[in-house]
Specification:
mainly beta, eight-stranded mixed sheet, seven-stranded mixed sheet
Length: 716
């Protein structure tokens, strides 16, 4: 017979929260039913053991053990913490990973505040024993970051994310993880956590026994998600990075003033819109993000909770078809199209054109046939998602608003470069570039569409996420004393025969390399909301090298003792000349005293580092405050060109073109990055925020940094 417990065991404090406990709403610090929690604040789980007349002050007794039922008093609770990246498959807890077990005795007895002549300490019995743990430190070890590879549209795998921190895959595996050829560790942006609570009792002999009988074990009712955000009290940061992270969960309700469905970023931005195209042009543009035409990665990261129209599911269901509120068998709320809508604006606020991006769909649970509907998204996903919305990526990958094709680029076969625009004077037409020279700004929001119903035509849900606004910065960089350029980014698309060729080939977006007198430095970093932000610094910029040397002293050679040798015979034995058949004296540097270039002070080894200083142009206070995140971020990167391309070099062709089959076979390109840019980690060592214009509230941000990787040197 299994051991059991006297009395009953309840979950007292549940991070997610549920209606089954009367204690939930009062004790859930992060708000009732909060499904997302930051790991950098307490994540509290507690249980409540109660019994007949059991008070806090009573000690567990061996004498209370009941031999006939093998039940005893609870001494400890064991909190088993499980994690999973994909809870949409598998069962609990079989397919979950146990990451830690915490044995916890009961909490200390509460001190009564009941008055005794005004001094407190009066008797007030609280019934039951409470066992409480904080699992945030355990959860911290599970998360890092998930950086979108430069130039890619999204993470190739939602479970393994992008370029992640954390443990690396061992290189001696017979069967490594082949999900993606640049993925070696789990997605650093999101985990799902669940806790099981087990109990230990004391038997009649005073021995501690694990209780496994019915009622001696409890699971928190729901799994919850954790993110690597950082609450920063005393600032103007949005609530999404504070304890109440629910605003980060995107659902079919769509964005609202209460729930803006914020991206995982604090980058200043013109915020929530109540209706599509309702924004008053010009107002708030100072809070729009600046992006440059040659920037290849601008990452949006969010948590996609549900993919359906919950408004329909709640109140707009098809009653004529027999549907009812919140019924899993309903069909009118199901979505078969979900995309990022990109709108390009001119300087007067007129919409020039619209396009779509679908890359993030790869992060969803795959489409399925549901309730007689073919190829629709399941309702619940709860997955971390990412989407590249940089100008380079949009121009190379966007799909026309009305296009029915979603898996190929719209203008297949067209290749366009900034060199044609800057050097050759070719017009940047709309046919070639979505974000052409007439575009002032663009907006990115997300839309979903329900499928056509028996008595309806489907519904488009606008503003599923907060709208993100970007202003195009067209300031060019100098690459010679007499001219300047956008650095010749290639905006490339499918080759001409993409529609008939089974092996579809796409081109990479490449940058021409130049040594720029006023080089701009773009930084990416793990932000306070747990996502990735980026900013281009255009102020004073300099880099330098520093080196320290280990020096030893060797004896100086005897320069007066020069050794001689002799050579005779014919080729090939003769030295130094094959034509000499007579004996010949020659100077040798191998005989004693001949090594005249060696000795004295010698360098044994060199330790070298690359450092830099960068400043911004004058910024408004909102952007300067946002850039303070760089100081405290543990992960910051810049990027470098990895290939020097010449105008006529065939290396462009070798680097730019790749096929799906070649990638799958591991030929030529390994998929780490679809362009010739590479992330380089740096460490911010110091910073300053100097007031530039008090009246206008302008601030200049200056950062000093060092490259994380030391400069590779030789050992003597």
């Amino acid at each position: 017979m299994a051991y059991g417990i006297n009395g009953t065991l309840k979950i007292l404090q549940d991070p997610y929260g549920y209606s089954g406990s009367s204690y939930n709403r009062a004790r859930n610090w992060t708000g009732s039913y909060s499904s997302i929690h930051t790991v950098n604040a307490p994540i509290v789980v507690s249980t409540y053991w109660s019994g007949s007349s059991l008070t806090e002050s009573m000690e567990p007794q061996a004498s209370n053990y009941v031999s006939s039922t093998e039940k005893g008093d609870v001494v400890n609770c064991i909190f088993d913490v499980y994690q999973i990246s994909n809870s949409s498959v598998g069962t609990w807890p079989t397919d979950w990973t146990l990451v830690a077990s915490i044995r916890k005795s009961r909490d200390i007895v509460n001190i009564s505040q009941k008055d005794i002549a005004g001094g407190g300490g009066g008797t007030e019995n609280n019934y039951g024993h409470i066992f409480t743990v904080d699992i945030s430190e355990i959860c911290k070890d599970l998360l890092s970051y998930s950086l979108l590879p430069d130039g890619k549209g999204t993470w190739a795998n939602t479970f393994y994310g992008g370029l992640n921190g954390g443990a690396r895959q061992q290189d001696n595996l017979i069967k490594p993880v082949w999900n993606n050829n640049f993925i070696v560790t789990k997605n650093g942006a999101l985990r799902k956590i669940r806790v099981r609570v087990r109990t230990e009792i004391i038997d009649n002999n005073g021995i501690i026994r694990e209780a496994t009988a019915t009622g001696s074990m409890k699971d928190i009712q729901n799994n919850f998600m954790i993110i690597n955000s950082a609450p920063d009290f005393g600032t103007t940061m949005p609530s999404s990075v504070m304890l109440g992270t629910g605003t980060l969960l995107h659902s079919g309700w769509g964005a609202s003033a209460t729930y803006p469905r914020q991206q995982m970023s604090n980058k200043p931005n013109w915020n929530y819109e109540y209706a599509d195209n309702s924004w008053d042009w010009g107002y708030g543009m100072t809070l729009a993000a600046d992006v440059r035409m040659n920037e290849t990665t601008e990452q949006l990261t969010w948590i996609q909770g549900t993919v359906n129209n919950i408004s329909i599911w709640n109140s707009g269901f098809d009653s004529g078809a027999g549907e009812v509120k919140y019924a899993s068998t309903n069909t009118s709320d199901l979505v078969d199209d979900f995309y990022a809508l990109v709108q390009a604006y001119d300087s007067s606020g007129t919409i020039l054109r619209k396009a779509r991006l679908y890359d993030f769909n790869a992060n969803f649970i795959p489409k399925t046939n549901l309730n007689t509907m073919i190829s629709v998204w399941p309702r619940t996903h709860n997955r971390a998602c990412s989407q590249n919305v940089s100008p380079v990526f949009i121009n190379a990958n966007c799909i026309h608003e009305l296009s029915s094709v979603k898996d190929v680029w719209e203008n297949g076969g067209e290749t366009y470069t900034r060199r044609l625009i800057d050097v050759d004077g070719v017009a940047s037409t709309a046919a070639a570039l979505f974000l052409n020279d007439e575009v002032h700004s663009y907006r990115v929001t997300f839309q979903s569409k329900t499928i056509t119903q028996g008595n309806g035509t489907g519904v488009t849900s606008y503003n599923q996420h907060e709208a993100r606004w970007y202003t195009i910065d067209r300031e060019k960089e100098m690459y010679s004393a007499s001219s300047d350029s956008y650095k010749g980014v290639y905006y490339t698309e499918l080759r001409d025969d993409y529609s008939t060729n089974s092996e579809k080939i796409r081109c990479k977006g490449l940058q021409w390399y130049y040594t720029n007198p006023n080089n701009f430095l773009r930084l990416q970093w793990l932000n306070k909301a747990g996502g990735i932000d980026a900013y281009t610094f255009k102020g004073d910029f300099k880099e330098s090298y520093s080196a320290t040397k280990d020096v030893i002293l060797r004896p100086t050679p005897d320069r007066s003792n020069i050794g001689y040798g002799y050579s005779s015979g014919s080729y090939p034995e003769a030295f130094p000349s094959a034509n000499m058949n007579v004996q010949l004296a020659y100077q040798s540097d191998t005989m004693r005293g001949g090594d005249t270039y060696n000795g004295g002070l010698e360098v044994l080894s060199v330790s070298a580092n690359k450092t830099g200083t960068i400043s911004s142009r004058p910024l408004n206070r909102e952007k300067a405050e946002w850039l303070r995140e760089l100081i405290s971020s543990p992960n910051v990167w810049t990027s470098v060109n990895t290939v020097r391309l010449t105008r006529n070099s065939n290396s462009f062709m070798r680097m730019a073109y790749r096929s799906t089959s070649s990638n799958e076979k591991g030929n030529n390109q390994d998929g780490r990055t679809p362009n010739n840019n590479e992330y380089v980690p740096i460490v911010i060592t110091s910073s300053s925020f100097d007031t530039y214009d008090t009246a206008k509230g302008l601030v200049i941000v200056t950062l000093e940094y060092t490259h994380s990787h030391a400069v590779t040197t030789q050992r003597n």
